[in-house]
Amino acid sequence: MRRKVRSRVLLTFICFIFGTMLGFSYQHTKEEEPRRQWSDSEWKKEYEYRSALIALQKENRSLKQQLVKKQAELTEWEKKLAEQQSNEVGLAKEAEQLRMHVGKARVKGKGVAVTLSDSSYIPSEASATDYIVHEQHVWKVVHEMLISGAEAVAINGQRISHRSYIVCNGPVIEVDGTQHAAPFVISAIGDPDVLSSALELAGGVVDQLVEDHIDVKVEKQKNIVLDPVFAPKP
């Protein structure tokens, strides 16, 4: 009886060991099965894919470097273009200023207007020519305005330039060949405070004109418009 029991126990133990070995072998085979499914052609494709991916990544890095370089070049060109545009704007402003100073451009702005009139009182024993406005009186005002920074000057609305001339012709004066009668309004665009102060200095232009029996009125103005210079008559 005991032998039968021992035989059964031994047989059971052997079956257990064999079953364990069989299960382990099956599990090991199952885990390795996916690996065994990769064929040589599949490994070759995997290698090709990986190689292509590496090549693409390398090309992408190269393209990024080129992009950074091109962006730097573009920034440099934009900077040069901005400098060129700035220079062109500066040249345009300079040309406009030159046109303004030589009287070739219409200008407007703040300034002063000086009115010169013949004396309202002429003594009977005096000569009338000593109490009227002459070209030298007009020139005094014009010169003082230009020296004090006037950007543009006109006489009775007629713009003058560096080529202008003023001469007396009887009771009138000629500005570049155009006759004007008194009163003479000399308009100048510039800083009103500076221009008026320069004219009204003690012993300055206004005082000199008053001594010559000329009626003088200086007015600050907020909006003066001066047309371009007319070509002087030959």
Question: Outline of this structure?
Answer:
Pfam families: DUF881 (PF05949). The protein is of the alpha+beta class. The chain contains five helices and eight strands.
Give structural notes.
With 234 residues, the chain is an alpha+beta fold. It has a domain at 107-226: Alpha-Beta Plaits. Helix content is 54%, strand content 20%. The chain is built from 5 helices and 8 strands. It has a 5-stranded antiparallel β-sheet with strand order 3-2-7-1-8.
Reconstruct the topology from this structure.
Elements (H helix, E strand, L loop, with lengths): L1 H36 L2 H62 L5 E11 L17 H13 L4 E4 L2 E2 L6 E4 L2 E4 L2 E4 L2 E6 L2 H8 L5 H7 L3 E12 L8
Antiparallel strand pairs: 1-7, 1-8, 2-3, 2-7, 4-5, 5-6
